[in-house]
Amino acid sequence: MKRLLAIAVLATAFVGPVAFAQSAWVTDQFEITLRSGPSTSNAIQLMVGSGTRLEVLERDAESGYTRVRTQGGTEGWVLTRYLMTEASAREQLGRLTGQLTNANSRGSSLDSQLSAIRSEYDSAKQQIATLEREKAAAETELAEIKRTAANVLAISDQNKTLMDQLTAAQIRGDTLEQENRQLASQTTRYWFMAGGLVLLVGFLLGIWLPRIQWQRRSRYDRF
Prior knowledge:
CATH superfamily of the domain at 2-87: SH3 Domains
Distance between the termini: 199 Å
Order of helices and strands: HEEEEEEEH
Strand order of the largest sheet: 6-5-4-1-7
Largest sheet: 5 strands, antiparallel
Shape: rod-shaped
CATH architecture of the domain at 2-87: Roll
Structural class: alpha+beta
Number of helices: 2
CATH topology of the domain at 2-87: SH3 type barrels
Strand content: 15-25%
Number of strands: 7
Radius of gyration: 69 Å
Helix content: 55-70%
């Protein structure tokens, strides 16, 4: 670290006062004075503790002082040899400790989020399982309704067929009844004609038989 500081001092010795836009940290060994000018004769404005971050405004290689600005906005001069180009190990350790604490906190938060996501996932799985069971039940009910509807259609077709058969049977019955009436009417006429014929034959026989008997008697009388 001291070697790097020496190289920086030597590099600035050939340049003279230069404006900078970089940061520097006070060495972590002790406090340093922030003076109003680049010499010990200038007034001390405040004491800057080790590890304090300062903004470098200007370096003066001849006097060995650097003009800086504190985070509070106070400007002054400090000895260049008491500045470091990076934060002290203690400061870095504190920063890393803070980062680790934040990381642990974020890790705890992520664990909580992960737990919540897992809980939501399990709940979603349960809902999906419930929906699948309801879907299976609905499909079973739909299949039963389709079978019932098919049976109803089959029964309807059977009823239609039976109605057609019944209608045909009624038509056939009416036809047979009409034929029966016709046959009955014909039979009546036949019996009527047969009766008339019998009466006619009887009448003719009634007339013819006496004549035959009379003729026979007449023949017997001749002998």
